[in-house]
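Researcher: Here's a chain I'd like modeled. Treat it as a single chain, no partners, no ligands.
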Amino acid sequence: MMKTTRSLLTRLLLGLLLLTLLPLTAVSVLAEDAEDTDYIVDETEVEYLFSVQARSENHIMQGFAAYGGVVFQLHDGGRCTTYHLETGTKISEFHLGSFYTHNHCGNANFGKEFPEGNTDFPALYVSGDLTTKACYVENVTATSAELIQTIYFDIDPSYTGGQVILDHARDRIVYMQREKSSIKDMNNVYRMCEFPIPSLDAGAEIHYTNADMLGEPYVLPFYPGIYQGAVIYGNTILQTHGYSGTATEYGAKVGMVCYDTATHAFTHAFDLTGIIDQEPQGTFVYEGRLYMNFVNGKVYEIKPKLTVKTDGYDMICVENEAQILDQLSGQIPTPYRLLSAKGDAVLWNSRTGEFQADVTLQTPYNELKVTLTGHALTHPWGEYRSNGNATCTENGTQTRTCTHAGCGRTETVEEMNSALGHAWGDWRVTSRQGASADRPIESACTRCGETQAATLKAVGLGTLEIVLITTVAILTLLALALTATLLYWRRKR
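Model: Modeled as a single isolated chain. Structure tokens:
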């Protein structure tokens, strides 16, 4: 009996010890998960702009989009109300061409192609059909709409809550679905498929199947809550979410999550819980500014408080302001990207190397105008060295090389006064003629072979020389004759 009692006590103690350690183990696991989390939650400022009517024909507002300064506010069932973005003034209220009971209008993105006869607005892509899995392409004006194309997604397997997001940078449709019907299912994921954007003249109906997919389907992490309208800005999917009783992984009930279109990773988020405790309905980026609407009819500009390094951009081997911008583009840290800069955006002191550049950066959410500063130094040149290519008549060149490791840039200029001049050889007669005739002669350069010509004059006798020679010849002949005569007479004697 004593052994049984001791055994029970031992088991009880071990059980209590396990119960004590379990919470610690859970905390440890959560801590490890937190360390592995690589997304960033940004602080956010919001600015209330104006209100739209929350209901149209008693149907709640949903996704919205803007083009040309006009906001197209969609309502469940295929209704639309338009407003001036700058003032919030209502323009018109009308039915879409896809006026249909199950067209939830959860998302709206403008395309790039303009319908025939419409030069004011490109086609508007409306999605969120909960039954037929379709996207409706509308030819819209500020006061009307006409259905011109329907894109059906006949894919297998098919999930729930499908919506279309246009990726203009990659010219494709990103079709987003929720794998499980419950928005509170912690095992849920977003199933993503990509398709070409069909041209507007491809037909009134487009039926996409698995064979039409661009690449393999992929999944994105799901965060409990009602996911709403989305837009792709740059290389980021901006997905609004909320409002539900369950907070997302990073604590938000209302906000936005961002996914990279290339890596499919969750990169950024912001939390509006406690700031706007309303269900968001849609989002768009217009002229570099991020907008969201909410179920209470209010429209806000959202301004995440991103931080970017603005100084210490050091570079070398720079020759002009344009190259400073080129090198800056490669140094901007993610998730920022150098979007644009004016031609005179860079002020550069090439002597000291100091510069400042007024540029526009693309963030995951919007555009950000900042001034970047640093030092941009020119090439550290070595000494000029002759290339040994001077000729007899032309100057040669000399080259210097940048001493910065890995650069290899060279600069070649004329080497002044380096022409060698000709090295003439001996003269030679090029044509044999009579002694009394002039004769041509030439000399060749021993380096390049170029020749120079001259004339060798014939040697002639003047009148005086002829008279003297003749006189000498006569006198010589007379002397010879006299000598011969004297010898003759002497012998006769």
